[in-house]
Design goal:
Helices cover 18% and strands 49% of the residues. The chain is α+β, with helices and mostly antiparallel strands.
Length: 223
């Protein structure tokens, strides 16, 4: 046998590893977790899956991915869970499109949704983790706290910072709502800012109770 053909096994192994590097376990885990799971559905809600170009009724336990859209009807609501990261509450008569759900080295988990109409509330397990943005018309809202809400009805947009701040950008004009503040936009123009009113506090209380019921059935997973 030609001695030059007997390459050490370790050399072959490292050659293969160089050609096909293995992703770190943490990166693989992050990518595998990047799906919303439906933890609660009340009333009628539909999901449109861009990958298959199909619309179907949304059910508890289903997964929601990047580029999917969810629509709720009157007296309907949906709660999505991003494992170990956040909850997304979609109120009645609302339509949202998941435009970004990704993990990147150095930036971590990045989430973005397009709110076509209605109301969404985001509650993160930790303040500003993950990076969460909501696009409502021409207004980009980015959460820098733990709980915030965005409402859109035609040309009207309201941004509520329940816990932590929210920064908005409309045509390059930047505004910020601090904890317990509400900002209103009309036709993409900033109008005014005020502190929470009774109706705002009432919605937060309803959501807190709703989330408490969900957590009893589905304890949150922490990383």
């Amino acid at each position: 046998m030609n001695p030059f053909n007997r390459k050490p096994l370790y050399l072959l192994f490292f050659t293969a590893l160089y050609i096909n590097p293995v992703l770190p376990g943490s990166a693989l885990a992050q990518e595998g977790d990047l799906q919303y799971q439906v933890v609660d559905v009340r009333g009628r809600a539909d999901i449109y899956r861009d990958e298959t170009d199909e619309t179907s009724r949304l059910h508890k336990g289903q997964k929601v991915n990047d580029e999917d859209s969810i629509t709720t009807e009157t007296k309907s609501e949906v709660v999505l869970r991003l494992k170990g990261k956040a909850y997304l509450h979609i109120s009645q008569n609302t339509k949202v499109h998941i435009t970004r759900l990704q993990w990147s080295e150095g930036k971590g988990v990045q989430c973005k949704i397009h709110l076509n109409k209605g109301r969404v509330l985001i509650q993160m397990d930790k303040a500003a983790n993950p990076s969460f943005e909501v696009l409502a018309g021409k207004i980009l809202c980015r959460g820098h706290g733990k709980i915030f809400e965005v409402y859109k009805k035609k040309d009207e947009v309201r941004v509520t910072a329940f816990e932590g701040s929210v920064v908005t950008n409309s045509h390059g004009h930047v505004e910020m709502a601090k904890t317990h503040q509400v900002m209103k936009y009309d036709s993409a123009k900033f109008r005014y800012k005020h502190y929470l009113k009774a109706e705002d506090e009432g919605r937060l209380e309803e959501w807190t109770n709703h989330l408490g019921d969900i957590r009893e059935k589905h304890p949150p997973t922490k990383r």
